[in-house]
Amino acid sequence: MFKTILAAVDGSEISHRALEEALAIARAMQASMHVVHVIPTGAYPVLTPNEIEPPDIARQALLDSLEREADRILADAERQAAAAGLRITVHKHRGHPGAGITALAQELGADLTVVGSHGRSRIDRFFLGSVSSYVVDHASSTVMIVRG
To answer: What is the pTM assigned to this prediction?
Structure first.
């Protein structure tokens, strides 16, 4: 029986479906439900220090845009949960998505972590690697991969 569930969302259709699955399980098991969005800062060279640093204003503009997108994605998740009759706790982190998801799952003591099988685009996969594979390889709890 699952008591604490963590679902990862990135705004993709598959993460929307993963959240639906997680919400259904949470409802059936009366589990607490958490949702995380990790802003993938390592995927953007402008956000990683190097010898050719862009102006701070460009870096900040990109971060601000990613923060707004994260807020929108998490607000959508809250609406989806409310429509299902459930309350969720949302979390927003920065860094490598797989590492952020597994670290939060461990911090929460999540019994189940739910992720989509792939992200928003193939280019994300090129930069980030497979987040779902990372979670499967590094999670200390049960992982559910929702496929498209």
So the answer is: 0.86
